[in-house]
Write the structure tokens for this entry.
Amino acid sequence: MHYRFQHREQIYQVAVNRQGEGYQVMVDGQSHQVEILDSQPGKLSLRLNGKPVTLYWAGQAGDKWISLDGCTYRLEKPSPRRARSSGEPSDGEAVRSPMPAQVRAVEVGEGEAVEKGQTLLLLEAMKMEIRIKAPTSGRLRRLLVTAGQSVDKDELLAEIGE
Amino acid sequence: MGYSGCSRSHRMFRKILIANRGEIAVRIIRACREMGIASVAVYSEADRRALHVRLADQAVPIGPSPAPQSYLSIKRLLEAARETGAQAIHPGYGFLAENAEFARRVEQAGLAFIGPPPAAIEAMGDKAQARERMLASGVPVVPGYQGPDEDVVLMREASRIGLPLLIKPAAGGGGKGMRVVNSPDDLGEALTSSRREAQHAFGDQRLILERYIPRARHIEFQILADAHGTTLHLFERECSVQRRHQKVIEETPSPFLDPELREQMGAAAVAAARAVGYQNAGTIEFIVDPEQRNFYFLEMNTRLQVEHPVTEMVTGLDLVKWQIRIACGEALPYTQADLSQQGHAIEARLYAEDPANNFLPATGPLLSFVEPVGPGVRVDSGFTSGDEVTVHYDPLLAKIIAWAEDRPSAIQKMLFALRETVLLGVTHNGAFLQDLLSSPDFQQGSLYTTWVEEVFEDWQPPQCALPAEVLAAAALTHFQNGTPTSSISSTNPGPDPYSPWQVANGFRLGE
């Protein structure tokens, strides 16, 4: 059986075949002898090329988290770069909320000129103040939120254009 | 005395309500269970299935997820206490823990407040008032100004105190509204923005001024005081590793103190607590000038601290149990000379946040949380695998505490514990903590309160090369699921043969 995983920008190929009591696992063309020592939900102990390792994992095929020796790896389903959604302006810069939050203050008005790095909005989430800064210089073409309003993760807050 | 006869009879509470959530609620419930006291948890809608609810003997819903409508609702908490017949309320930290009005209403309802007397909370809660009290009691405070705070007065006082200068909300805490001013030109704007933030955070826009001490250390002393006149200090905690006034790593003993300075600061801490008639557990925070080795009273936290476990590890005393016993009228059986520090303890705070992206809080399902175990490793957490980290509350997931015979071994043990910690599904600061602990500055103990911001501002996670083991394991978890002889019991019908995720041959699709 063949599998493909994406880690950051890189796509990896893995092939698994039964071999006696264990498995032969090909990782990017290199062969490894693997024996499963213990398998529990979310936890897998292997002997890989004679060396015992224990890994913890969670998630589904499309988005798998694996932890080994204090490092966490996130494996995703390989996919072409997400295309820009059609509702977004192509010549402007979208400013989105990094997380669900409440808008505490709006520092600039629609139509005003903004400089890259300038604070546009103050959000509050989990007792923290989050400054939303202009990703680019330009003019605030659209402002979609007002103080006191709740916003979702990735919600469009404002647009900066020429 | 509003202690409902408890201080006279010394009869232990039979039932305590915990007016908090998360790891501290769990910590207090465990202490209750140990002592044979029934525990009552309270919960908001978001916490219906939270760990503290699962562990308590009783659990009472107190309102919607936003804290002002639940964990900050004095009315709902008192109703919950009455409904369940609780005799005492433990406020934990945060929420209403330092709210004198809450403490007073608890006592007026005939219940014991497991914390200090309301007057002590009030005296220390107002920074301006606290500074004056400390000055009057001979406790050193940072040169500064507290008093009528019209901008013109503050401008004049600022030039008297000199630069750099620190502006603080008089009602404040946790770094909210604080500003460091390095140039006279910035003073006006800093006063305005500090006032605005103070008004928003505390509903009180009064400000005080202090001289800013660059590269200062934050060293605090734990206090335990009973109702019979015994006030002890349980030594220090070094809390210089903080980011924007939020502590990240705490330890005891401090690598900076020698026995002489420790004794002086301990005596000042006891004097500070006595000056406000303090009872129960509290903490005197000092800032220490590393050049002159002078120390100054910063503030008193009139509650249990997040970082209390390190003190418990080196002193052997259980602070939460002592809080309960003291509230019940029991006398401390120790003198200062009975107490000592054994070994070295470090606490690291595991936060749901992204250190590589401006420390933005992270939310989501905690798919897997495996706590580290081993001799000298303690974990205080409020979550288990499957819980949801929501936007409503503090992003503290767990506190990892390591104890060993000396500082280098304690650092080593903490690094081990962090490597053994598995936390999947939510972005967290585990790798960041490991880098802090591994840095030469930390190992040498050369710490100051702006160290993290100065040295780790542009921190990026170490680029772990993806090992073959990880890919092999990922593939095997799928393979096992789709194989009849699978040792994983699963309702998954097997791999979808049409999924692009699984390709029958080895060619690459695109890049």
